C-alpha cells in the first residue's frame, strides 16, 4: 500500500505453520482453543528469541493470573452478554503473534517505529511494546464494551508496572516505553485513531483476526448476524512480505460474504493508522467456494474496487461507521473546526 492504494500481488502460497518460513504467517481458526494458544505461543517465542526483554515480558504476561482473569472476563462480557466474536485468550494470543509478524516485516524493510525514531529505545523495546500492547488491548471489555479502550488502559497499568519493573530499573525510560503501550491499547479500535506506528501495528493485528473460527463460537451461542456469518466466510489470513510494500495481508474467503469483515473490520484499521503507508491488502474468494458474487477486491485509497464475475468493475467508498459516528457527534455539538 502506498498512500492508501493496494496493489495486486501475483500468485498464492501454500499454507505454512505459524513458525514456518520467514515473513509469513497463516492465521487459521479451525482447531481447539488450547491448540490455537499453543501454536500462537510457539510463534511468539520464535519471533522474540533474539529479544531478551520482550521475551521475558511475554513469558511473564502469558502466566500472569491478573491478565488471565482479564482475558476470561472480557470474553464473558463480549460473547455471553453481547453475542460478539471471541475477545479473550485466543484472540489475545493470535493477535499477539500477528503483531510480531508485522513488526518483523517492517523492521526488515528498514522502517523505524516511533519508539526508535524518537530515541526512546531499540528493537527489543519495540517488540516488548507491541506484544504487551496487543495482547492487553481488549481487556477493558470486561467492564463494558462502551469505553473499553480507556478501561483497558486503567486495567493494564498494574500489570505493566509489575512486568516492566524488573526489566527497566530506570523509571524514566520505563515510563516512556510504557506510554507507547498505553497508547496502543487506547487507540486500537480507532477511537481515537492511533498516532504511533506501534499503535497502528496493534490496530491492524487486531483487524486480521477475522477468520471463521472466531465467528463459529458466537454463531453456536446463537449470535446469527452479519458479524458471525461473514466471519464464517473467511478461511484464512496470511501476513507476508509484500511486493511493493513491507507487509502484505492476504485474505482468502470461501464466500464473498466475507468482504464485510474486510471492509468493516480490517480495512479501516489500515486506512486510519500510520500503517497505511506500509501495508498491501488483498482479498480473494476460492474458486470452489459458494456462488461467486465477486472474484477480487482491491483497496485503493478510501475505496474498494470490486471485480464482479460478469466482468463489471464497481468502486465503492469504505464504510467507516466509527468515523461517521464521530463526525456526526462533532457536527451536532457545533464544534467542527475548533481546536483547543
Automatic annotation (TrEMBL):
Region Disordered: start-end pairs: 1-21
Keyword ATP-binding (UniProt): no
Coiled coil: none
Keywords on record: Hydrolase
GO molecular function: hydrolase activity
Record has Hydrolase as a keyword: yes
Annotated Basic and acidic residues bias: 9-21
Protein name listed in UniProt: Phosphohydrolase
